[in-house]
Structures are given as structure tokens and as C-alpha cells.
Predict the 3D structure of the following.
Amino acid sequence: MPDYLVRDIMRSPAITVSQQADLDEAAELMETYGFRRLPVVDDEGQLAGILTKGDVRAASMAAAVDPYDPQAGNWLTVEEAMTQSVLTVTPETPVVAVVELLLMHKVGGFPVLAPDNSVVGIVTESDIFKLIVREWKENTASAAPGERENTVPATPGEKENTAPATSGKKD
């Protein structure tokens, strides 16, 4: 696989949310677009944090509000629920480094920042899976029919498991 950079696979521009937005508005935005995370920006458009579905769930449960309580007008903001410490990458970060960071930190994606700390995109595990599928299809299509193999990469200390491709028909 060629040496891909984040700029080759990131989604740009990123949809962001203001840290002052109501949490329920951000949750609705996430639901509408099918996102599991949103970069959070401050008034100057600089990255302030990230809001994940887990953050929304945790904050909603911690601040369970009785809808019948007349004093229940204090809704949570994104800033109160977001994760402030955010790992980020740049458009020039190699995709292999992103994969290593995803595995090391057990997260699903990163905001992509320009040198001025503005959010220019987002890269997630889904973007990496799309790249893998695209490469896999291209490599399979370019191989001659007799050369195709189903290969399971070896883990350290194991031999590679290679089996010839089959048509799926039983003899």
C-alpha cells in the first residue's frame, strides 16, 4: 500500500460545534449526520475539545433533569460535557501513524488541525477502513485470476496463512 497521508483520506471541511452550544443541539447534530464525535471550537474557531457520543451520554445521565421541574431551565452546554484534552493530527501525518495512535489510545478518530490550530478536517477509523477496502479492491482487480490469494497477515511469531482464492462453488 502506498504511503498515504491524512490529507488523502480525511473528511474536510469538518463539521464543528461551538463550546457554547446547548448539549442537546450538539447531540441532534451528531444524530442527523451519523457522527460519533464532533470537534468543539471556541469563539475564534480554534479547537477547544471534542464531544463524543459517550460524553453526551455521561453528561445527560449525570445531569438528569426533571422535565416537570419549573427550575429545570439550566441545560448543559457542550463545554460542560466535552473532552478537553484532545489528540490531534495534521494533514501531513502518515496514515500508518494515525492507525498506531488509534490503537494506542483506544479512540476512534482525530480532528485534523492546520498550523494555526484551526480545524480543517477529521479522520476516523471509518476513513481508514474505506482506504483499506479501496486498496484491496484495486489490488484484487489488478491480479490475474490464478494469482489471487486470500491472505491473513501473520502476527509476530506466526507464519503467514495463505490460501488460494476459490470461486465459492462446491465441487
